[in-house]
UniProtKB/TrEMBL annotation:
GO biological process, one term: regulation of DNA-templated transcription
Organism in which the protein naturally occurs: Haematobacter massiliensis
Region: Disordered, residue numbers: 146-181
Protein's recorded name: Polyhydroxyalkanoate synthesis repressor PhaR
Entry superkingdom: Bacteria
Record field: compositional bias (Basic and acidic residues): 164-181
Amino acid sequence: MAENDKPLLIKRYASRRLYNTETSDYVTLEDIARFIRDGREVKIVDLKSGDDLTRQYLLQIIAEHESRGENVLPLTVLTDLVRSYTTQAQSVVPQFLAMSFDMLREGPSRMMEGLTTYPNPMSAMPGFEAMQRQQQAFLKTLMRGWAPPSTKEEEPASTSSELADIKRQLAELQERLSGRK
């Protein structure tokens, strides 16, 4: 197994400091978030007890991002997550979220297609339609600002005209600056 295929082992010392076993240095939560954004799996364990603390630290990273205004999770989704801990929905929520993120990784067209066309074994569950609407709202929020790579032919006309306008303004600025020298 290649080194990047196995999880990066982070050890938490009694002082609560986090130690990267590959680079032999201390890391912060932001470093761990960067590893994950770069596609690396991480595993955080308590040095003394050997307990897996990964879930706890990932939740802490999410909470810190949310508290800084980097809101990915709409308030309604957060509310429903809290509710799921005290209802029978608790048993289906993890699978539902995992399915949503699997579709997100596969791409937006596949994701939206999956929400509407694939037979879903949970569709017979009471309240499934409400959960599906919630999932669609959640995924639309996640997708805001994200677009798949496109070709020149797919570029909207307004983008082309905006680009031409920006080029014209840049040329005017260059003329003004060269006239001042």
